[in-house]
Specification:
Layout: E1 3-4, H1 15-21, H2 23-26, H3 37-57, E2 64-67, H4 70-85, E3 89-93, H5 98-108, E4 113-117, H6 127-131, E5 138-142, H7 156-165, E6 169-173, H8 185-188, E7 192-196, E8 207-211, H9 237-252, H10 254-272, E9 279-280, E10 291-295, H11 301-310, E11 313-314, H12 330-334, H13 339-342, E12 345-349, H14 357-372
Parallel strand pairs: 1-11, 3-4, 3-5, 5-6, 6-7
Antiparallel strand pairs: 2-8, 7-8, 9-10, 10-12
Helix pairs in contact: 1-9, 3-9, 4-5
C-alpha cells in the first residue's frame, strides 16, 4: 500500500467527522438565516461548531468568523484590516504562506505600504525586526504561527507585543499549528488568527478567522449580512459542522496525536543521518511534531517527488498551493538557503494515523533514488 506522507497539504476526513456531517447532507434543512424551524436547526448546528472551534483555541464563540477556506481567512484579515483604515502600512514575513504574501502585494497597488520581515537561517522571525520599522502608520503585522514547509514555530506572543508597541494589530496564520500544538488565542495577545478545517481531519471548504471583537474589518464579500456582516454568503452547514467536530476531536486528542507524530519524526531524522549529504532544515529550533523538510543536493525537487511517487511514497516540495512552479521554495529563499540546495527540498509530514512502517518505506525509497542517480 502506498505511503502518504503529505499531511500538511491535506488530511483525510475523520470517520467521526463524516458521521457528524451526514445528517446535514442527507436530510432537509433550511437556510441558517431563515427564522423558521428548519433555519433554526441549521443555525443551531453552526452555533455549536463555533463553540467547538472557540474551545480548541481558547477564544470566545463570537470571535469566530466562518469562511470557505484558510486562504479566504488570510485574505479577509489582510484586506479587511487595511481596508478599514483606508491608508497606512503593513508588514508580513518572507516565510509566510502565499495566502498572506500575495494579498499584501495586491493591496500595495492601491497605495498601501508593505514591508517584508526577514527570517534567520532557521526560519525564525525576530521581534526586533518589527521594532525596527519606523513607519508611523503601521496598521498590521502578520507572521504565521508555524511554517507549513519547515515546521518552524514562531514566538507569536513576543511578535504580537512588538506589533502592539508600534500601534499595530497582529495577525497569525495558525493553520498548520492548530491541532498539532497548544494554541491559545486569548493568552497569545493576537488580534486575528486564521484556521482551516482540512488540516485537522475536517472537510475542505471550511475555514475561520478568529477576530478580537474590537477589531474592525472591511468585508470582502458583499450581498448578505452573514457572520455579523463580516462575510456575506450562505454558510456551508455540513462543512462547518464537520469543522466543529474535527476541532472537538483535535482538542481531546492533541497530546496523543503530537506524541505519535513526534516519535515518527524522531525515527525519520535518526535514519536520515545515514545520508551525509541530506540537510534537515530548521532542526535547531522548535518545530511542528509532524514535519521534516530536507534538502537533497544535486536534485530538482519535482524529479525527486516523481521518483519517490514511483516507489509508492507521497511527499511534497513544500506548500501544495505553490508546488509545480519549478522555482525554489520562497520560504527557504527567505531563510537564505542557497538556491542549489533549496531546489532539491522536499517535505515529509506525518498524520495521526501514520504507521511506523511509512518511515522505513520513505528511507528505502530515498536510498533507491539516490543510488539510481549515483548520489548515494
Amino acid at each position: 500500500m502506498p505511503s502518504y506522507l503529505d499531511y500538511n497539504a491535506t488530511t483525510p476526513v475523520d470517520e467521526r467527522v463524516l458521521e457528524a456531517m451526514l445528517p446535514y447532507m442527507a436530510s432537509p434543512h433550511g437556510n441558517p438565516s431563515s427564522v423558521h424551524r428548519f433555519g433554526r436547526y441549521s443555525r443551531g448546528a453552526i452555533d455549536e461548531a463555533r463553540e467547538q472551534i472557540a474551545a480548541l483555541v481558547n477564544a470566545q464563540p463570537a470571535e469566530v468568523l466562518f469562511t470557505a477556506s484558510g486562504t479566504e481567512a488570510d485574505n479577509l484579515a489582510i484586506k479587511g484590516v487595511m481596508g478599514s483604515f483606508g491608508s497606512g502600512a503593513l508588514a508580513v514575513s518572507g516565510i509566510d504562506h502565499h495566502a498572506v504574501i500575495e494579498p499584501a502585494e495586491f493591496i500595495e497597488r492601491y497605495g498601501y505600504r508593505r514591508y517584508l520581515l526577514p527570517a534567520n537561517n532557521n526560519g525564525v522571525v525576530a521581534s526586533e525586526s518589527i521594532a525596527a520599522l519606523s513607519d508611523e502608520e503601521l496598521r498590521l503585522v502578520s507572521v504565521m504561527w508555524a511554517n507549513s514547509e519547515t515546521g518552524a514555530v514562531q514566538n507569536v506572543t513576543s511578535l504580537a507585543e512588538a506589533a502592539h508597541s508600534k500601534g499595530a494589530l497582529f495577525h497569525s496564520d495558525a493553520i498548520q499549528a492548530v491541532g498539532k500544538l497548544s494554541v491559545d488565542f486569548s493568552a497569545s495577545g493576537l488580534d486575528l488568527m486564521s484556521l482551516s478545517s482540512h488540516k485537522i481531519y475536517g472537510p475542505k471548504g471550511a475555514g475561520a478567522l478568529v477576530r478580537r471583537n474590537a477589531v474592525d474589518l472591511q468585508p470582502q464579500l458583499h450581498g448578505g449580512g452573514q457572520e455579523r456582516g463580516a462575510r456575506a454568503g450562505t454558510e456551508n452547514v455540513a462543512a462547518i459542522v464537520g469543522f466543529g467536530k474535527a476541532a472537538e476531536l483535535a482538542k481531546s486528542e492533541l497530546s496523543s496525536r503530537a506524541d505519535h507524530c513526534r516519535s515518527l519524526q524522531r525515527d525519520l531524522e535518526q535514519k536520515l543521518a545515514a545520508f551525509p549529504s541530506v540537510v534537515v532544515f530548521s532542526k535547531d529550533v522548535e518545530r511542528l511534531p509532524n514535519t521534516t523538510q530536507i534538502g537533497v543536493p544535486g536534485f530538482d525537487a519535482e524529479t525527486l517527488l516523481m521518483e519517490l511517487d514511483r516507489s509508492g511514497v507521497a511527499v511534497s516540495a513544500g506548500s501544495a498551493c505553490s508546488s509545480g512552479t519549478g522555482e525554489p521554495s520562497h520560504v527557504l529563499t527567505a531563510m537564505g538557503i542557497p538556491a542549489e540546495l533549496a531546489q532539491g527540498a522536499i517535505r515529509i509530514s506525518f498524520g495521526k494515523d501514520s504507521p511506523a512502517k511509512d518511515v522505513d518505506a520513505f528511507i528505502m525509497a530515498l536510498a533507491a533514488v539516490l543510488q539510481r542517480f549515483g548520489k548515494s
